[in-house]
Amino acid sequence: MNIPIIKPNIDRYVDSVKGELVRILKSNMVTNGEKVKALESEICKKFNFANTVALSSCTSGLILGMKELELNSKEIILPSFTFCATAHAASWNNCKLKFVDIEEDTLTIDPEKVKEAITKETKAIIGVHMYGNPCNIKELVKIANDNNLKLIFDAAHAFGSKYEGKYIGGFGDFEVFSCSPTKLFCTIEGGIFTTNNIELSNKMKTSRNYGSPPDYNCETIGLNARMTEINAAIGLEIFKDLDRIIENRNQQAKLYFKELKGIDGIKFQKIRENCSSTYKDFSIFIEEDILGFNRNSLASYLQKKGISTKYYFYPPIHKMQVYKDHNNIKLPITETMSKNVLSLPIYNEFDENVTMTVCEEIKKHINES
Ligand SMILES: Cc1ncc(COP(=O)(O)O)c(C=O)c1O
User: How far apart are the CA of 156 and the centre of ligand 1, in A?
Assistant: First the structure.
């Protein structure tokens, strides 16, 4: 048996996209072309975004966005329970990182902890929509407004998630989504930046192109962070399929809930009320004192059965060797969650047999322990 944790399922689009890829290659116009513009415009239309900038990755969007908000060397509040890129992007801007804890049920940044962490030096907050579950946006917007702080959302997981009926995007100073192969909307590699601020959007368009306007008289120190035409063409094809993909992932999550919800010792992430998740990941929380085995033992058991899982996210950022100055801070919920959370296989295509097999093997391990 071989059940991977992730399947990008890009092979589904080979036939529908190959003609376009050949046309792009034959045109010799492989960057700065029409496909990138078309993808930006389609995303704006469907999600009702004011401005969208397609990039080479979510990480480059976070780095450049923070730079354009002039956060260089400033104090910034962020969760530690996230992927390294959230903190790395702030570190590329020499920001002073202030890690705070998350809410135990939603696994998103705790607004109360954000309030406690604010000092005179604080200039920004980063929220992460964990696994696609939106943060407490309303409360974070209020805190940012009351304290005159910039508000950034690392929306890497949340392309297509909804907050109170509205697609994620346009809530903070900016959001950035990831389109890498582990994400449900994949452009092979890529990132989508969105903001209501047209000036910021224009700056990002210059920044993704070395900071160089057409006359080469650079306005800012940018990067090469462009999305190519090939990536955008693949993105356009997959974007047409987004509703079906999100529905499929939600169906898998529903089946996991149904099969595992009665088990004492397994807990789930709570999706915020009036919100929907893309289920970029489906993660369970293992209570060792009840089950008699820990997360790592379950992961090894499943691996032996050919089922891959991931520790998203372990170690938490404040415990990483590269962030050694933060290793001694205490974030109890983050530390508990990252030791006990296990992400299970979930795909854009729904195969009931896969989800059922994973659940059956989890139940077997419980019965044998
Ligand atoms: C929370 C979070 N932020 C940022 C990123 C970086 O995205 P990218 O690989 O597109 O740069 C990821 C990637 O998985 C992520 O999980």
Answer: 5
